[in-house]
């Protein structure tokens, strides 16, 4: 193992190389671009024995990745924002085909107006597609998740494609130390590719022709069953990875000081680190706070969260995205998970378009929530918008 | 030890590289570091900020640095455009690329070095611009002590694949390390 | 080398009991692909009639392994498959089988990209000149004046000259073919399979349902399209343009069968037969194609420069 | 898994779609094989001696074979209506 100071994007590229990916197809989009630039360089220099298809669009990027994977190759693509949205149709097709594929998403806001900074709307938009969706907090975790993604998606109990999300710029372009294992260590840990079928003249397999409504229904059911199985597989892989490389994260949810906490922050992505700092600060002020960091948005860690949160005084969910006309996506799922409990809940929409959210911002929102709970008892506030500082007054006026 | 830094430069001037080299140098010393570019729609010449953190322990925080311990200014002319000491802690320091040896910031400990001249002397000029970033990291090492000059030179040597560029940039860092003084 | 029917094996190339309409040109064409390339083929099929023709899971009525894929990116998926096979050292023919919509319109971007990258695939555009699978709507390849359900009074724009657009991509091989001339198509497929890089074959495929003719006439109408000069057969190979022998004699308009013979057999051309202005427009469309041919013959690859 | 394998009858016995059936008069057949070549369904079958016969299980009755035959050896004959011999 070697410590390297790498951007999140380059950390993922290193993992892709170590996984011995055979086909890569990608189209550049900020802030994903430097990831595939690095991969192209690795291929051109002969460091990675793979075919790089420099496609003309993201729609084609995933279609080509799927084609390669269906033909039996370990395949990878990466994108962001509008690119991910443009791919959306092919995401459904890939998951429905049950073909293991790994994709990195450098999460970014969606226009208009143009904004290249972090937000989770792009990846949240893919929740229903049948992809396993993981979110990293650190560059190291983006690297680790990428390696794990091949193992998880290629597990016969799963056979679903997987997204590794890393926050645009905040991880994708930030340089931080990343522990890189040797090729030999990775080869020992990551088995050769497995997949449910290959399409070749020998196999004579036809994928995707018309199915009866009943058969179609049952194929959908089988994806849900695979998602359920994936929870077990994710936890196993996390533990095995820990044994091999010394890093385990706690499976689908990372619990930071949440065991003895009265109030828990539910959050995902890089700003979970800031939330942990906020929890430390809150404890200094006498509030027993913790963080339940969602590592996997899909499959949703229902059991883990219920187990960890159902006896708390309050749960406050921070979403860096919103389902317009409804709530933050993490809030909706968390609220459904806590149905029937006596836990106070608040949903907070913050940090859209890369607006900086700092530990003290999170702390004061939690303090406000704690105050409300102490004052009135059971609180249910599904959405509050943490407006940018210079617009904070506007929020008060419109009563958000 | 926990130090937060902010770099001020212009688009194309290499502030991101400066922070990256700093982070790599810190890594050589067994420390944890972050180098965080702040990206916008800025193009070449526009003011840019880059943040960095160095710590004995792993760093979890990812928000931007608003109360830095150290501010590094790569371009003297930026002082006309940007309040570089905004949020700087009272005991904080400024590391300034300056043609003169006087501090414009009476409230802060300021260190001056003529990195532009050092870069020009070493022929470190790209597309007409002196590249002062490596010199400024060397100067920073002296002024703040967050990393050693040896680590900076090692990080620079590793960063540039061309041996001649690695040499010239290392020389710039060492020269700036030697020349910088409190002003 | 000319194809002798008696030499072709007695085996069943098609897959009977599929969901194609009676007289379907697509199942005809697919048989010819099998005759030409045998079993060493993987098909990539975007949305279209051919997705339906396969029939219902767990059987498929197309006698090939198939990756069915979304409408817009068949060429990219084929490129991906080919890349995987190349990594494995396998020499399979990856063949896209797409309709005019999947090629000229919604799929154009990905096809153009694959052509520009010179991906080693055979791309077959099965041109039935409208969106037949969704019920006969006009496409970029519907001829001028033709009725469709979205061009009630006849199409008011001309057919996109797709084979020439593909020649302009400067790929190693471009050909037109017709289900009316199977031997010619088979020969071209075999040639395409022997060339490395992007190969494009534009297959004219008269649709009895969409064109409004008796299903027994599919082959005849396809032949008439060639004999009237409506659909010339040609090849463009490594910068050399060549009119195919079946179309050679129709270079001279005097030698062509009268256009009306082709039109009057098809219900879709009623607007053209009724309106001399529309007939003129259709004739212009055909003439423009022959001017392309003349230019390419005269200047070869220089025509593109 | 959403997969299939090529097999006959993916849409059932499509011979039932027919309204007219091709009948081959072998006395006129010259073994040119045009009917076999153009049949979209592969339901014109070749005997060892290259005379042809029809797979009525799947033939959809399009009539391309009759049109392709230069000697008019294939005749399209209306199928008997339901309730008579076919039922």
From TrEMBL, chain A:
Keyword presence, ATP-binding: no
Domain called Pyruvate:ferredoxin oxidoreductase core: residue spans: 261-362
EC number per UniProt: 1.2.7.11
Record-annotated Pyruvate flavodoxin/ferredoxin oxidoreductase pyrimidine binding domain positions: 15-237
Molecular function terms, GO-annotated: 2-oxobutyrate synthase activity; pyruvate synthase activity
CDD domains: TPP_PYR_PFOR_IOR-alpha_like
Superkingdom of source: Archaea
Any GO BP annotation: response to oxidative stress
Protein name: 2-oxoacid oxidoreductase (ferredoxin)
TrEMBL record, chain B:
Pfam families: POR
Catalytic activity: 2 oxidized [2Fe-2S]-[ferredoxin] + pyruvate + CoA = 2 reduced [2Fe-2S]-[ferredoxin] + acetyl-CoA + CO2 + H(+)
Molecular-function GO terms, alphabetical: pyruvate synthase activity
Entry EC no(s): 1.2.7.1
Keyword vocabulary terms for this entry: Oxidoreductase
Source superkingdom: Archaea
NCBIfam families: PorC_KorC
PANTHER family assigned to the protein according to its UniProt record, in alphabetical order: PYRUVATE SYNTHASE SUBUNIT PORC (PTHR43366)
Listed name of the protein: pyruvate synthase
Provenance organism: Acidilobus saccharovorans (strain DSM 16705 / JCM 18335 / VKM B-2471 / 345-15)
Automatic annotation (TrEMBL), chain C:
Top-level enzyme category: oxidoreductase
Annotated keywords: Oxidoreductase
EC number: 1.2.7.11
InterPro entries for this protein: PorB-like (IPR051479), THDP-binding (IPR029061), TPP_enzyme_TPP-bd (IPR011766)
Superkingdom in the source lineage: Archaea
Reaction catalysis annotation: a 2-oxocarboxylate + 2 oxidized [2Fe-2S]-[ferredoxin] + CoA = an acyl-CoA + 2 reduced [2Fe-2S]-[ferredoxin] + CO2 + H(+)
Gene3D superfamilies xref list: 3.40.50.970
Residues covered by the Thiamine pyrophosphate enzyme TPP-binding domain: 68-202
Gene Ontology MF: a single term: thiamine pyrophosphate binding
Quaternary state and interactors: Heterodimer composed of an alpha and a beta subunit.
Protein name as catalogued: 2-oxoacid oxidoreductase (ferredoxin)
From TrEMBL, chain D:
PROSITE patterns in the cross-refs: 4FE4S_FER_1, 4FE4S_FER_2
Signal peptide: none
4Fe-4S ferredoxin-type domain: residues covered: 20-49, 50-79
Key words of the record: 4Fe-4S, Electron transport, Iron, Iron-sulfur, Metal-binding, Repeat, Transport
GO molecular function, a single term: metal ion binding
Top-rank taxon, per record: Archaea
Cofactor(s) listed: [4Fe-4S] cluster
Name of the protein in its database record: 2-Ketoisovalerate:ferredoxin oxidoreductase (VOR), delta subunit
Organism field: Acidilobus saccharovorans (strain DSM 16705 / JCM 18335 / VKM B-2471 / 345-15)
Phylogenetic classification of the source organism: Archaea, Thermoproteota, Thermoprotei, Acidilobales, Acidilobaceae
């Amino acid at each position: 193992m070697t410590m390297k100071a790498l951007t999140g994007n380059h950390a993922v590229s290193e993992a892709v190389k170590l996984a011995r990916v055979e086909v890569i197809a990608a189209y550049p989009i900020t802030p994903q671009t430097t990831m595939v630039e690095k991969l192209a360089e690795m291929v051109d220099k002969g460091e990675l024995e793979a075919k790089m298809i420099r496609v003309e669009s993201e729609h084609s990027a995933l279609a080509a990745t799927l084609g390669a994977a269906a033909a039996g190759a370990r395949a990878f693509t990466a994108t962001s924002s509008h690119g991910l949205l443009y791919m959306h149709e092919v995401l459904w097709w890939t998951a429905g085909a049950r073909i293991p594929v790994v994709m990195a998403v450098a999460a970014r806001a969606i226009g208009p107006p143009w904004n290249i900074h972090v937000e989770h709307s792009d990846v949240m938009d893919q929740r229903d597609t049948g992809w396993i969706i993981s979110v990293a907090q650190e560059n190291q975790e983006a690297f680790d998740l990428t390696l794990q993604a091949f193992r998880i998606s290629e597990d016969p109990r799963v056979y679903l494609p997987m997204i590794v999300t890393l926050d645009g710029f905040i991880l994708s372009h930030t340089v931080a130390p990343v522990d890189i294992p040797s090729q030999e260590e990775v080869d020992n840990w990551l088995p050769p590719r497995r997949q449910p079928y290959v399409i070749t003249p020998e196999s004579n397999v036809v994928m995707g022709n018309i199915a009866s409504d009943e058969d179609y229904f049952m194929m959908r059911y089988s994806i849900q069953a695979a998602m359920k199985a994936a929870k077990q597989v994710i936890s196993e892989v996390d533990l095995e990875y820990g044994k091999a490389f010394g890093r385990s994260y706690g499976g689908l949810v990372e619990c930071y000081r949440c065991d003895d906490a009265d109030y828990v922050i539910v959050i995902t992505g890089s700003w979970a680190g800031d939330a942990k700092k906020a929890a430390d600060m809150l404890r200094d002020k006498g509030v027993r706070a913790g963080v339940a960091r969602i590592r996997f948005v899909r499959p949703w860690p229902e059991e883990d969260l219920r187990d960890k949160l159902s006896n708390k005084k309050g749960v406050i969910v921070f979403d860096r995205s919103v389902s317009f006309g409804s709530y933050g996506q993490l809030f909706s799922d968390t609220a459904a998970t806590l149905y029937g409990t006596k836990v106070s809940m608040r949903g907070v929409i913050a940090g859209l378009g890369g607006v900086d959210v700092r530990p003290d911002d999170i702390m004061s929102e939690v303090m406000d929530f704690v105050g409300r709970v102490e004052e009135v008892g059971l609180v249910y506030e599904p959405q509050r918008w943490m407006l940018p500082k210079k617009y904070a007054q506007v929020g008060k006026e419109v009563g958000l | 030890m926990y130090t937060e830094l902010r770099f001020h430069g212009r688009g194309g001037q290499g502030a991101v590289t400066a922070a990256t080299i700093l982070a790599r140098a810190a890594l050589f010393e067994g420390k944890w570091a972050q180098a965080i570019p702040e990206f916008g729609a800025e193009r070449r010449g526009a003011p840019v900020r880059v943040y960095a953190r160095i710590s004995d322990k792993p760093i979890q925080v990812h928000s931007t640095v608003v109360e830095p311990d150290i501010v590094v200014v790569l371009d003297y002319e930026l002082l006309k455009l940007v309040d570089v000491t905004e949020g700087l802690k009272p005991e904080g320091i400024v590391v300034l690329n300056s043609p003169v040896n006087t501090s414009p910031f009476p409230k802060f400990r300021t260190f001056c070095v003529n990195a532009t001249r050092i870069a020009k002397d070493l022929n470190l000029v790209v597309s007409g611009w002196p590249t002062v970033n490596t010199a400024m990291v060397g100067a920073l090492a002296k002024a703040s002590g967050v990393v050693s000059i040896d680590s900076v030179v090692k990080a620079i040597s590793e960063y540039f694949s061309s041996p001649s560029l690695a040499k010239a940039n290392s020389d710039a860092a060492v020269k700036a390390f030697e020349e910088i003084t409190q002003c | 080398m000319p194809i002798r029917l008696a030499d072709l094996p007695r085996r069943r190339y098609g897959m009977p009991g599929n969901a194609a309409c009676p007289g379907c040109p697509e199942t005809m064409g697919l048989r010819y692909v099998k005759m030409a390339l045998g079993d060493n083929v993987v098909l990539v099929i975007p949305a279209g009639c051919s997705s339906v023709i396969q029939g219902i899971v767990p059987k498929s009525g197309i006698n090939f392994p198939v990756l069915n894929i979304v409408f817009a990116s068949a060429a990219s998926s084929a490129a991906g498959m080919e890349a995987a096979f190349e990594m494995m050292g396998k020499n399979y023919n990856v063949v896209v089988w797409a309709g005019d919509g999947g090629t000229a319109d919604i799929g154009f971007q990905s096809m153009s990209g694959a052509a520009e990258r010179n991906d080693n695939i055979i791309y077959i555009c099965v041109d039935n000149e409208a969106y037949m699978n969704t019920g006969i709507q006009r496409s970029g390849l519907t001829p001028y004046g033709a009725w469709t359900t979205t061009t009630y009074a006849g199409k008011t724009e001309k057919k996109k000259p797709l084979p020439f657009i593909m020649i302009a991509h400067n790929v190693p091989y471009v050909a037109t073919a017709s289900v009316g001339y199977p031997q010619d198509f088979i020969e071209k497929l075999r040639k395409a399979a022997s060339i490395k890089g992007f190969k494009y074959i534009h297959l004219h495929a008269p649709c009895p349902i969409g064109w409004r003719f008796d299903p027994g006439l599919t082959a005849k109408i396809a032949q008439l399209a060639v004999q009237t000069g409506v659909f010339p057969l040609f090849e463009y190979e490594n910068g050399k343009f060549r009119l195919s022998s079946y179309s050679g004699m129709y270079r001279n308009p005097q030698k062509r069968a009268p256009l009306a013979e082709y039109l009057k057999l098809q219900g879709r051309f009623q607007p053209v037969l009724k309106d001399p202005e529309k007939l003129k427009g259709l004739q212009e469309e055909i003439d423009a194609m022959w001017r392309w041919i003349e230019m390419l013959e005269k200047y070869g690859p220089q025509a593109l420069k | 898994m959403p997969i299939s394998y090529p097999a006959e009858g993916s849409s059932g016995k499509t011979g039932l779609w027919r309204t007219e059936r091709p009948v081959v008069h072998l006395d006129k057949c010259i073994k040119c094989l045009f009917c076999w070549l153009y049949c979209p369904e592969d339901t014109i079958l070749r005997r060892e001696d290259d005379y042809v016969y029809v797979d009525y299980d799947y033939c959809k009755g399009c009539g391309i074979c009759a049109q392709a035959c230069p000697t008019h050896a294939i005749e399209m004959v209306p199928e008997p209506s339901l309730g008579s011999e076919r039922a």
